[in-house]
Amino acid sequence: MRNAVNKSYQTLFLKAGDICMVSLRISVWTILGSCVSVVLRSRRNQLMGICHGQLPDQRVAKCTCSNSCPRPCGIVPTPSDDLYVSNSIRHMLDLFQGNSIPFTDLDARIYGGAAILHPEKPFEDSIGYQNIATAKKILSAYPIPIIEEITGGNQGRSIYLYTDTGEIVVKTHTTN
User: Fold this and answer.
1) Cα separations in angstroms, 148 against 12, 78, 107, 155, 170
2) Is 5 contained in some domain?
3) Order of strands across the sheet with 26-32?
């Protein structure tokens, strides 16, 4: 395993609501608590995407989808909507599709989703759990295999993605 921060890489910090799609040699890192990062990778050409979703999905009271809608929720995401796990994953899928990469060529990894705000409550009641469940639901709808999942618990994580190799280093935060 390499050191988490490698100075020979150009480094990009991913904030909540950000998406990064890249085939260049860079390091992308982010800090997660209840937020979730999903990494999508094309097995054919090594194009990679990573998102940092803060909340599970956008709740719209009067949203009706038609049979021809390409998105199960009927909402066309805009960049500001990428704070939502559901929208950020769909946005990445749109970007892959725009690069002529079929969903069948993708695999996924999911990170984060800790119960850090109220660790005394049941995990199923936490935003972290809802974020994880939303990511799995969206990925299964396409269907995109999840090849790694480091989620849950009650501690945050730092994620370091090295795009040239696809290696991901996960550092769990400890409390003193």
Assistant:
1) 22, 28, 9, 18, 12
2) no
3) 10-13, 26-32, 157-162, 167-172
Is 166 inside a domain boundary? yes
Taking CA atoms, 128 is separated from 34, 60, 120, in Å, by: 4, 20, 13
Q: What is the pLDDT of residues 121-169, one digit of tens each?
A: 889 989 999 999 999 999 999 989 999 999 999 999 999 999 888 899 9
Q: Specify whether the CB–CB gap between 21 and 79 falls below 8 A.
A: no
Average pLDDT over residues 43-51: 90
Distance CA 154, CA 30 (A): 17
Q: Give the range of the structural domain holding residue 119, as residue numbers without chain letter.
A: 10-56+67-172
Q: Considering the domain boundaries, does residue 49 fall inside one?
A: yes
Report how far apart the first and last C-alpha atoms of the chain are (Å, whole number): 25
Instruction: Check which CATH number belongs to the domain holding 34 and give it.
Output: 3.30.1330.200
Strand pairing partners for 106?
A: 42
Give the rounded distance of the alpha carbon of 22 from its chain centre.
14
Backbone angles phi, psi at 89, to 5 degrees: -65, -45
Strands 106-112 and 36-42: antiparallel
> Rounded to the nearest 5°, which phi and psi values hold at 154?
-130, 25
> pTM for this one?
0.84
